[in-house]
Write a structure and sequence with these properties.
heterodimer, A: MetI-like fold, 2 strands, 69% helix, flat, B: alpha+beta, Rossmann fold, 2 domains, five-stranded antiparallel sheet, binds adenosine-5'-diphosphate, binds magnesium ion
């Protein structure tokens, strides 16, 4: 077979080219992610460093930065554990409101015909595209009228309100995927409308609820702009307010303290992802897996 | 058990009239089939009986009690969906127990009843599984159990066999028939498969475009189709339907088409004489035609142009110009392509459909 199309020389050249390409891609990816890696490394090292050369290059080892855990760095500041509790209240509050409102709303939008249905659907998308910051002043007045300024409940409602449109879209997809037959079957089997929703529909959209709950929790945990704008009193501070205060209140920012508090702020989220990673990978937005 | 009566039942979805003026009655303990092609309104009818859809017009009676405004849960019907609609998040046991749990029955009773129906359909071993782990046939049984466990007054089956393979379909057909007979539940079977309807039901309601065409026992549907639709829908292989013109020749009525002539006996004379000169449709079932090698006065001479062995018999095709005829010949009769044979109809098995599509025999019978 002198005319074989397989020529060893050219094949080897091809393989070399592939390898070079791969090496190039890895180099690029490493370089591109370097700033992020350096950022986190600085955070970890800085949290345990005594002093900073040029103000920000960490040096030495100390636990001094972590003293905020038992003694507020400034007498005007709240106890850190109070702040942690507030952060959880905010995150879980947002989660609860978002899950309840979006699940009920999405069910109705997915299953029922009523005037204005498509308008509502379209407007939820537009709302989601709306930059939240432009609402800041209007929201300030609304919260003041409602007497919710400077309270966590006010921030919970605002943050949840901004999350709901997106969550409704996600949940509507999950409800749309549940066949009508299953719902009808429950009715014929003797369920009321509410029992059908509670005992048949809700379990089937469980993965969707998990997805929007996670998004809502994270957004509550990471809330910043509405907190620092609407909440002043130290009693209602969360960890974001705390970090904001560290950056803003000293003439020279205490980088060691900043790094330590930031690391502390990240720990619950890291733990959460560590333990739920396997489950999270199975959640696909908009898909009812398995079943029939 | 309950009797069922529908009066002028109509359902509109926007511009689509899914069911139009359907009236029929089912006796207590009866087994009927709703038969018709896909999209003719069978499922819509079932869902109205179950109380899922509200009729646009008409009335539904169970045991002579008006049911139109009664909620599904108070109708005591069992419904097996075409998709089976099992709850994917529940085990088989939980699926079957669901209606009982909603009815707040005791744990012992639920346990006992579920085991009972599971034994009835031989799925005791599957109770711990989830629907996703079952084959189509097993899912079908679970769905049937779930419908039966609450001891319904009326059992509604929406194409319960259409997702099964051919062999399982035949087994399950017999099984459902046996169960229905044992339990004596008033049953409505929805199907687009005439064999299913013919073999299982005592009476068949043939539907087309939301309108009831004929409601009769299987034998009557086959022997006396009321109109062209029923004639073409019932029977396999399907009836030969030949568009012909009615002519009078020397005192005899002749049905004639391009290259094809058929002279009628006395039978349909009365119905046909007013139609001389008009177009009608002649209907001949392939199995009602005989083939003969000798000349027969009442026979139609033709040349075989195709044969299809069907196992039990041979389907012999003839062509007369535009007109095609199929004849079901016994396997023992040797027929070759190109043979010249006489096709012999049997007088009492000839159907003629008038210009409005209605059978002239029906007109005779009604007169
Ligand atoms: N929920 C619905 N909305 C609009 N049209 C429908 C709906 N259900 C059925 N139809 C229409 O009604 C007709 C009858 O449907 P169906 O009862 O499902 O037929 P079958 O079960 O005989 O196949 C069809 O034309 C179908 O498109
Ligand atoms: Mg159907």
């Amino acid at each position: 077979m002198g005319t074989s199309r397989y020529r060893p020389g050219s094949l080897v050249r091809q393989q070399r080219k592939q390898k070079a390409l791969k090496a190039g891609m890895y180099t690029f990816l490493v370089l591109a992610s370097l700033p992020i890696i350096v950022g986190y490394l600085w955070l970890i090292v800085g949290a345990f460093s005594g002093n900073f050369v040029f103000g920000f290059v960490p040096q030495g080892f100390t636990l001094e930065n972590w003293s905020f855990l038992w003694k507020p760095p400034s007498p005007a500041w709240p106890n850190i554990w109070r702040t942690v509790l507030n952060t959880f209240i905010l995150a879980f509050g947002v989660t609860a409101v978002v899950v309840v409102v979006s699940t009920l709303g999405a069910y109705v939008i997915s299953r029922m015909q009523f005037p204005g249905r498509s308008l509502i659907l379209a407007s939820t998308l537009i709302l989601h595209a709306f930059p939240a910051i432009t609402l800041l002043i209007a929201l300030y007045y609304i919260l003041r009228i409602l007497g919710l300024l400077d309270t966590l409940i006010g921030v919970i409602l605002v943050r949840a309100g901004l999350m709901v449109p997106f969550s409704i879209w996600v949940m509507k997809g999950f409800f749309d995927d549940v066949p009508w037959d299953i719902e009808m079957s429950a009715l014929v089997d003797g369920a009321t409308r509410f029992q059908t929703f509670w005992r048949v529909m809700l379990p089937l959209v469980g993965p969707g609820i998990a997805a929007i709950a996670i998004f809502a929790f994270m957004s509550g945990w990471a809330e910043f702009i509405f907190l620092v704008t609407f909440v002043r009193s130290p009693d209602a501070w969360t960890l974001t307010s705390y970090i904001n205060a560290i950056i803003g209140n000293y003439r020279f920012t205490n980088y060691g303290l900043l790094a330590a508090v930031s690391l502390f702020y990240m720990v619950p989220v890291l733990l959460f992802f560590l333990f739920t990673q396997k489950f999270l990978m199975r959640v696909t937005v908009g898909g009812l897996k398995g079943g029939r | 058990m309950a009797s069922l009566r529908l009066e002028g039942l109509t359902k509109r979805f926007g511009n689509v009239v899914a069911v139009n003026g359907l009236s029929l009655a089912v006796d207590d303990g009866g087994f009927i089939a709703l038969l018709g092609p896909s999209g003719c309104g069978k499922t819509t009818t079932l869902l109205m009986i179950a109380g899922i859809y509200r009729p646009t017009a008409g009335k539904i009676y169970f045991d002579d009690v008006l049911m139109n405004d009664v909620a599904p849960k108070d109708r005591y019907v069992g419904l097996v969906f075409q998709s089976y609609a099992l709850y994917p998040h529940m085990t088989v046991f939980q699926n079957i127990a669901f209606p009982l749990r909603l009815a707040k029955r005791s744990r012992e009773e639920i346990e006992r009843k579920v085991k009972e129906v599971a034994a009835l359909t031989k799925i005791e071993k599957l109770l711990a599984r989830r629907p996703g782990q079952l084959s189509g046939g097993q899912q079908q049984r679970v769905a049937l159990c779930r419908a039966l466990v609450k001891e319904p007054e009326i059992l509604l089956l929406d194409e319960p066999l259409s997702n099964l393979d051919a062999r399982l379909r035949i087994e399950t057909r017999a099984e459902i028939k046996r169960l229905q007979r044992e339990l004596g539940i008033t049953t409505i079977l929805v199907t687009h498969d005439q064999v299913e309807a013919m073999t299982m039901a005592e009476r068949i309601a043939v539907m087309h475009d939301g309108v009831l065409q004929q409601y009769d026992p299987p034998g009557v549907l086959y022997d006396r189709p009321k109109n062209l639709f029923v004639a073409s829908f019932i029977g396999d292989p399907p009836m030969n339907l030949v568009p012909v013109r009615v002519l009078e020749q020397g005192g005899r009525l002749i049905l004639s088409a391009d290259g094809f002539q058929f002279s009628l006996g006395e039978e349909l004379r009365e119905g046909l004489s007013p139609l001389v000169g008009q177009e009608v449709v002649l209907g001949l079932r392939p199995e009602d035609l005989l083939l003969s090698r000798e000349e027969r006065p009442e026979g139609i001479p033709g040349e075989v142009f195709l044969t299809e062995p069907l196992g039990g018999g041979i389907l012999v095709h003839f062509a007369f110009g535009e007109v095609k005829l199929r004849v079901l010949a016994p396997r023992e009769q040797p027929v070759e392509v190109g043979d010249r044979l006489w096709i012999v109809p049997q007088g009492e098995k000839v159907h003629v459909f008038g210009p409005d599509g209605r059978s002239l025999r029906e007109a005779d019978a009604a007169a």
